[in-house]
Amino acid sequence: MEINKKYKYTKTIRNWLLLGLIMLVGQVIIGGITRLTGSGLSITRWDIITGVIPPLNAEDWLHEFNLYKETPQFHKINSTFTIQDFKFIYFWEYFHRLWVRALGFIFLIPFIIFVIRKKINGYLIKRLALVVLLTILTASAGWIMVKSGLVNRPWVNAYKLTIHFVLALLVITAMVKTIADVYNYGTSKVLNSKKIVSLVIGITFIQMIFAGLMSGMKAGLYYPSWPDMNGEFLPAVLSDSDNWIWHNMINYDSYLFAPALIQFTHRMLAYLLLTVTIYMFFKLKNNVTAFSKKWLNTTLFLVLLQVVLGILTVLNVAGKIPLFLGTSHQLVGVLFLISLLFFNYSIRKQKP
After folding, report:
1. DSSP E strand stretches across the chain
2. C-beta of residue 251 within 8 angstroms of C-beta of residue 245
């Protein structure tokens, strides 16, 4: 892909876009914490304007708590909750929603100012419009996801959670592309081995899908061992052909098949991703510019760290996913994707 962006963006524009990327990553991580703490269903309504204001007195808290008591999650899992317990899970879901509102605020007002003052060109307006559209889709999918946990099941639907997560990654991907273009990433150096980079990016996105399913199905809880899965390489439930039916994939909370399949695939993809990333590193490390080499080094470091964190997370499961390790595993996974994308854009051909 060739780029030739003659338009010069100010340092303010560049820093604004970087801040947006940081906040997008923060939103994904806060969402992960919300999931791990079981907080996602604590707020049962989506009030875009009035929802900015949290409960301010005992009466408001009691009202919110009573709404939560009507949910399946309270009846089936958290029936012993006190109002103090409720305040803890409410905080994370509120913070998650407040962060995305702040993200919109930080983007919208400067965006309008920059357009009025003609500080950004048509290209950047279109790119940011795409980011905004994807963000709206992500937020909408998030609310659909939450609603899926307010009826019958005491948790959100794993497949809807995965859609929400993947859309968030697409927002980040779109923002990375925008930043790479604004910073005029590229090289005049000819590189004939870029297919391996596309392969690694493709495997990474597939792995991210399974990561969302891992979280949604709480699949990490069922096989808290490594390198085996409760003493087996391939869980016995996957060896029985009778289990390979769609019913077991839909009813993942009642049958072990789907969590076993998702965790096994997630592990195998992790080994594959580690292998191809190492191969990419040694194949390209002597053929890229010093700037690109920094991103390449970063991808190698992050994939190694990610594998270690994944193993530690599984080994430290004790009835629930450890919060720090689980969150760190998700953060490093997102950072790996970002570094991989920046590396990819740094080796594309650029006209003088």
Report:
1. none
2. no
Structure tokens at 77: 């899992």
Say if residues 349 and 305 touch (Cβ distance below 8 Å): no
- Residue 142, CA distances (Å) to 41, 69, 157, 162, 299 in order: 11, 21, 11, 10, 29
* Helix/strand/coil for 283: helix
Per-residue pLDDT of the chain (352 residues; tens, 9 = 90+): 444 455 678 888 999 999 999 999 999 999 889 888 888 778 877 776 656 788 889 898 998 889 888 888 888 888 888 899 899 988 888 888 888 888 888 888 888 888 888 888 888 888 888 988 898 898 888 888 777 766 776 678 889 989 999 999 999 999 999 999 888 887 767 676 788 999 999 999 999 999 999 988 888 899 999 999 999 999 999 999 999 999 999 888 888 999 999 999 999 999 999 999 999 999 998 888 889 899 999 999 999 999 999 999 999 998 888 999 999 999 999 999 999 999 999 988 775 5
Query: pTM (2 decimals)?
Result: 0.90
The DSSP output letter for 192 is S
Burial class (CB in 10 A: 0-12, 13-18, 19+), 342: buried
Cα 287 off chain centre by: 31
Alpha-carbon gap, residue 40 to 33, rounded angstroms: 9
Amino acid at 82: T
Cα–Cα distance, 327 to 318 (Å, whole number): 16
Locate 119 and state its tokens.
């500080």
